[in-house]
Amino acid sequence: MNKLLGLLKSFRTATFKDTTIVFIGNNLSSVLGAVFFFILAHQAGPTVFGIFSIAIAVAITAVDLFDIAINNAIISFGSKSGWMAIALRNGLKRKILFSIIFSVLLWIFIPAVIWVLGKPEISYALKISVWLIPAKAIFSFVKTALQAGKEFFLDSAVDILSSVIRLLGFFILWKIGLSPLASALWSYILGLLLSTIIALPKVKDLISVEAGDKFNHKEFTVYQSWMTLAFVASSVSSRLDIFFLTRMVSLEMVGWYQAAFRLYMPVQQLASSISRVLAPRFASFSNRNESIIYLKKALFLSGGLAASMFLLIPVYPWAIKFLYGNNFQGSIVFAYWMMGYFSLFLFSTPWWSRLLYYHSNAKKFAMLSILQLVVLAVAVPFSIVSFGGVGVAIALFGSLALTTVLAAI
Question: CB under 8 Å to 65, separation ≥6 — which residues?
Fold first, then answer.
């Protein structure tokens, strides 16, 4: 009992306050984002909603092949005394270069993507989504800079503004005559670009500070290289679900699956909030005992939040009908099956943060990511054949459980 009271008292710390700020901001952003997806689903129907989801998944996968690794390298090195500005400058240069390269590559390989996925209907959406690559890279750089500087309030404001612009942009573009699909894609891109403007003065201050201790460029590059390998594997594996579904089932079922997936956006935002607060703190710890004590507190918080998710099970049939419409009743079974995966996803966040930022063990993270990719590449198609579309949720849970245990060990 005393131990429990001690843990509860420890929540009155900067960590809990920062997590609360980020979570509230992310929650507002998530609500606005959810409204955007609900309106799009009502106006476009399951098939077009599926096309939109596929185009976004392809573009974000291309971004993640380079972007997340750079972000993690910035956090890991920028959290060290005197290294923030030069880590940010290094990261920005690499993001600009890779954004250009991957945008061109995606444009060139659109026919190949269509052939692999077997759905020629997605061609138009893929051409627009190419512009999402530089937009997402710039947006994530600004947010990473704010995270490294522990500017969590401004970080949350950028998230909220992005969702506001996306929602308003969708209505404006739709009203002037664009199709729901084109309106949704362009407003998504504009939301990312325009929202970064409010943070530019602060980012400029962070990036212009003179470096203190000598910066180890080689170590930064080695860390980024392992992280790139890790996130190439994890970004592909995190979207194997939608890629295999697109190939193996109808676009309508893809729309149902994505509608159910979007119900868990608050959970993804919450996990992201916790991770963004934990990252610079784990990176700053100098001894093992500090990191273990902090890990226990973080697991207590994430575990309680994960358990509370199961209270939402009874409302899913009503919520899906209300939010998406009668055409999305097929989403209900997906929502039930994915509960286990997302509860584990939220609970496991502190273990991954400790591995990445306290241990800075990008190599082990890369190995675990590759293992997860291999497991999913086998399990997802097998599960779809055996259990239908809901087999995806079973495969996701199994692979995450395996890699989480290994990460914890």
Answer: 102, 228, 231, 232, 235
